[in-house]
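ok trying again, last paste got cut off:
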Amino acid sequence: MTVRLRPHHLLCMLTFVGKGYTAGFTENYRLIAKRLSAGEDILVVDGPDDICAPMLGETSNHCFCDSVTERDLKASEAIEALLGVPAGPGASILPDAEFLARMREAFSSGLIRKGCVRCEWSPLCTGIAASGFDGVLVVSFGC
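nice, full thing came through this time. structure:
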């Protein structure tokens, strides 16, 4: 199977510790984290993805907001610069332990955090990165 992720969720997956907008959102994200940890490949999509799915019926859904679309663009540009491969909509990423390590190192240093600007979760993610990614649920691709 394939996990469908929008570009800024390539950053979010690095620090997911089981917190989220709603109980349904969090449970869905936990299942996706297990799939990612098992090594499923990633298809980068434009707009709402597998993580967004539980939010799409909410009246206060932000998944279509311009600010979120801008986060996607900034995240894909930063990740493409880091990895030297496409990370925008349509890109297929075959994640492995090296991919996860490079992404986490770049996230910790701030190199790929342009997609995190004005995100309400940014302080939490900064703390998780500072802790060495303690307690994250995407633990290692393919293990």
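cool. Residues 29 and 137 are 9 Å apart (CA to CA). The first helix runs from residue 9 to 12.
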